Amino acid sequence: MVIYVEDRGTTEADEQGEQTTAKDPDSTYMHVGPARFWFVFSTVLLGYFVACFDINLIASIHPVITSYFQASKQASWLTTAFMITNTGFQPLWGRLSDTIGRKSVYLIVLSIFALTNLWCGLANSIGSFIAARAVCGVGAGGLMSMGLVVTNDLVKVEYRGTFVSYINVAFEVGAACGAAFGGVISDSIGWRWTFGIQVPILVVCGIAGFFTIPNGLGPMLIRKAVNKQGQNASWMAVKNFDSLGLSCLVFAVAFFILFFNLGGNELPWNHPIIIVCIVLAVLLSGIVACVERRAKQPIMPLHLLITHPYANLTFANFLAGVASNTVLFNVPLWFQAVELSTPSASGQRLAAPAIGGSIAGVATGYVITVTRRLKVMLIIGSIVYLAGSIALYFIDRRMSEVAKIALITPTPLSQGFIYPGSMMAAFATSPQEEQGVITTTLSLWRNLGIVVGVSISSLVFQNVLNLRLDQLVHGPQAQYYIEVARNSVRAVTEIPQPYQGQVRDAYAQALKLSFVTAIVASALLLIIMVPMKLPRMQKGGGGNVAAE
């Protein structure tokens, strides 16, 4: 194995790190002492929690918001606008923080997120609200990515697994609280306050980050080497920033998401707009590849997509996103349409699996920290994904509640194994100067997996449902109740027998086949994980290890 060592010059962060290491060579932390680290890390966790809360809260309150503005037909844009910017701008923050430093970028994305939450709370039209959500996606995605990057820079490589697992817990808890309490807050004090209450928390995070995050974090500020022309390396980094690559990537991602979100939902797949979206997405992706190949500081280095083990880890995040969201998007639909549960009861059934996922995330961090073996948890996660997806195909409404929850649980468990595990492997096998952009690249592909998982499974579900409704629903008023079932899930509870039983059977068969998407994604995930070679992490500092 090869150790990558970088000559970075001296900065404030380095000086602090040297002092800390001199006092305690076995310290867990770099650049800061334990007390200061925990101030920084608490800020990161709180920011991560709020971002995940915000992302998931729209799921529970978007009917209230669109009803307030009398714009129910535009409901999908509340999520689509956010996802486009959240995903498309991910690579920007990693490379920008390499250029101007972690602290500056962290405070920038935190400010964007806080101001756009205020904008969401004050919006006076649906257009203004959608615009606010679009810009909010920029801040939320950046805040989550930079939280990981800052933590990575302050913790020695052999201990990072533990802290990444803590971040995973913040992710799970924030997501659960957003989905569970968004509606409660909206019903109690109004939907505007679901955004308003986030602002003072983010202000506190900003103040804490300003005073506690070291100024010198980030390879381009740390390294004060002078190039042949005598110019400062930081200035050259700014000059060589990959603006063209970023622009093309953002638009490629935007058209890709529009293709999957609008196709088959608001517009038929053969609609000219849908065709234009996928053509532009493919063309722009080709341009991105050409630009990134020549860029001095690529916004998304191509070797992350074509060389081992980075490509394995990148596409593992994509496939995990597909598998996870195929299940987590469609399982609530199973409980509401097949079991006739309320939305709140459906959400409560996901609570125990979510807790299991958080525990798995913490366990993954500790196992990697203690054993320093990176591949074991990734293989376990891939096997659990596949076994759980196959088992879920056999779910039946006549099963006990315990059995149904047991069938759902493998998916969040697998997330707890794969997401922190793949991030740790990426950190351990990459040079320090690339870790910011690697973090954001993995996040981008994970988000694309989320979009693709929901879209493909929905496409399968809708086509099979239409077919099964025509095959299974019989009687004098069959056509009327078929249309009712197609247009509203909640209306299934009001359909009389025997039509209701027939409709529920049709939904059950359609949802089971939609889970095949998760089976295929999980199988591909295992296929790319098994041959991957990863080193055992070496003890000592922030050194990064790569397999020969």
Automatic annotation (TrEMBL):
Membrane topology: Multi-pass membrane protein
Region: Disordered, residue numbers: 1-26
Organism domain of life: Eukaryota
Major facilitator superfamily (MFS) profile domain span: 40-534
Keyword Transferase: no
Record carries keyword Transmembrane helix: yes
Cellular component terms per the entry's GO annotation: fungal-type vacuole membrane
UniProt keywords, alphabetically: Membrane, Transmembrane, Transmembrane helix
Chief place of localization: membrane
Transmembrane segments: 37-62, 74-93, 105-124, 130-151, 163-185, 197-222, 243-263, 269-291, 312-335, 350-369, 376-395, 506-530
Listed SUPFAM superfamilies: MFS general substrate transporter
PANTHER family: MAJOR FACILITATOR SUPERFAMILY (PTHR23501), MFS MULTIDRUG EFFLUX TRANSPORTER (EUROFUNG) (PTHR23501:SF67)
Protein name: Major facilitator superfamily (MFS) profile domain-containing protein
